[in-house]
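Onboarding guide, step 5: your first structure request.
Type a short instruction followed by the sequence, for example:

Predict the 3D structure of this protein.
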Amino acid sequence: MLFSHQPLGALKKRGLLFVLGAISLFGCQKYCDEFEPNLTYFPNPVIIQSRPSAFPELTNEECRRDWGKEVRIAYAFAEEQDYYRAITGFKRALVLMPNKEIARRNQINYAIVQSYYLANKCQETIEAYESCNLENIQKEFPAIQELLIILYDSYKKIGEDAKACNILSIVQQEFPELAVQLQLSTAFIDSDFSEIREIAAFSPHESDVHSLLDEYSMVVKSPERARLYQTVLPGAGYYYVGLKNAALSSFLLNTLFVWAAYNFFKDGNIAAGILTTSLETGWYFGGINGAGIAAREYNERVYEVNGREFMRNHCLFPILMLQTSF
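The system replies with structure tokens like these:
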């Protein structure tokens, strides 16, 4: 009844305007090709357990003291990856420990920071560090490199780039080789290819880095090309990315809607033709955008798998740079 009192010519004119409007709406959409791979890594606990301690063992006299007993229990929990109970034990030890035990207090404060970090609680790691006296320790601190690594990684993960930069400047002054490793790690995690190549020139892994990036460039898929193929032939963009089922579905769906719209208009069923054409327009432009997204996600997965393996094998994850444990 909606179109019963309107002339056929008016219907066609309105239908054409509706279709053109739909095409304009879907055709002017912006494409997001932001590359956002997720390079995260959690090592096997055995790797952490195999690291030696940076600190001298408690003496017999220290073990007999109440705080010494708490420290031993806390370390036992930490070795079992029960970090929260370990932290509680370390804090109890600090309460019982005399203030004159400066070296041991620094050791326990570091153990708390380390426990939070290994539990992947970066915000708590920084809060624990900033609330204790570790900011005043010197280069002679037994776990100074590990502490700097933990702080740099934690500041980066919570978005405190300025503070991470300050830590990195300290590392560059005191441990230049470690600084290169940290910078290369950050470049990989940020998927900054130009930065990776630049920093790799100062790394012992330069040739391996270039080989990895060259291999990646050979298999990468272009989102622009995927969208172009999908524009020319629905389904071709998905096929280019390797999604054969999605390609077939896209082709059949678009073909079905085009065929249906053509027959509706041919039979004079303008309303149904307009509706079908508007649906086809959505599917068509949605497919173009989807093909671009599929290409981007393909690139991200390839980078994640190969990048994570490379960083693991070359100990480029900050947590793998730690040379000592509890």
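Each response can be followed by summary notes, for example: The chain has a mean pLDDT of 89.
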